[in-house]
Amino acid sequence: EVQLVESGGGLIQPGGSLRLSCAASGFIVSSNYMSWVRQAPGKGLEWVSFIYSGGTTYYADSVKGRFTISRDNSKNTLYLQMNSLRAEDTAIYHCARVHSSPTFYFDYWGQGTLVTVSS
Amino acid sequence: DIVMTQSPDSLAVSLGERATINCKSSQSVLYSSNNKNYLAWYQQKPGQPPKLLIYWASTRESGVPDRFSGSGSGTDFTLSISSLQAEDVAVYYCQQYYSTLPVTFGQGTKVEVK
Q1: Whose CB has fewer CB within 10 Å in chain A, the N or C terminal residue?
Q2: Residues B97, A86: Cα–Cα separation, whole Å
Q3: pLDDT tens digit sequence for A45-62
Q4: Which of the 8 DSSP states describes residue A29?
Q5: Cβ–Cβ below 8 Å for A94 and B55
Q6: How far apart are CA B48 and CA A61, in angstroms?
Q7: Which among A45, A50, A107, A108 is the top mutation candidate for probing chain B, defined by the most B β-carbons within 10 Å of its own β-carbon?
Q8: Please, which residues 45-84 of chain A have a Cβ atom closer than 8 Å to chain B?
Q9: B10-13 and B109-113: which strand pairing?
């Protein structure tokens, strides 16, 4: 059974850093395209970042230069390093598996972890 | 970026009645080489992550009840729930994956029971 479990969220001051984790089971993270998608409280879905199976990474303009997606193949875990956090980064962060390239819809989602950026 | 616009923002439907949600893209998401529409629909219940319902605009994901159907092509798409059940109360999102950087979602449509 495919499962994605995020952790690492919390309350952080503006300008601070946080690293989110997404532990996967039931499939191999490094063999798939993975993504982070966020959802501001009471709002819609916003794509944040991709990491392709070959390791290529992409970011939304809103987080480029501040966020870094990565993975640890030995732990089958996806990460999102978030630096220089802003109030507008407050959201639930979901990790999600891309169905397959080039069909970039998301077939499995984690429950999400809440990041609150506030002083 | 391709902008996805859903309508209405919310709707209330009686149990057993039909619910219809529209999604319009700012440019066509039909890929001419394979004649496929790069459009997916998701259901998100309160406190839960989104769940994939439909991809390629009209293909139901495994396990999704057949009361859910998707239609449309090019820039105009529809998600229909043929006979609304209480468990269908949720927010529904469309997503285009024709342009992957970025993929974009509609703003969501909240479905409630009248």
Answers
A1: N
A2: 28
A3: 999 999 999 999 999 999
A4: G
A5: no
A6: 27
A7: A45
A8: 45-47, 50, 58, 60
A9: parallel
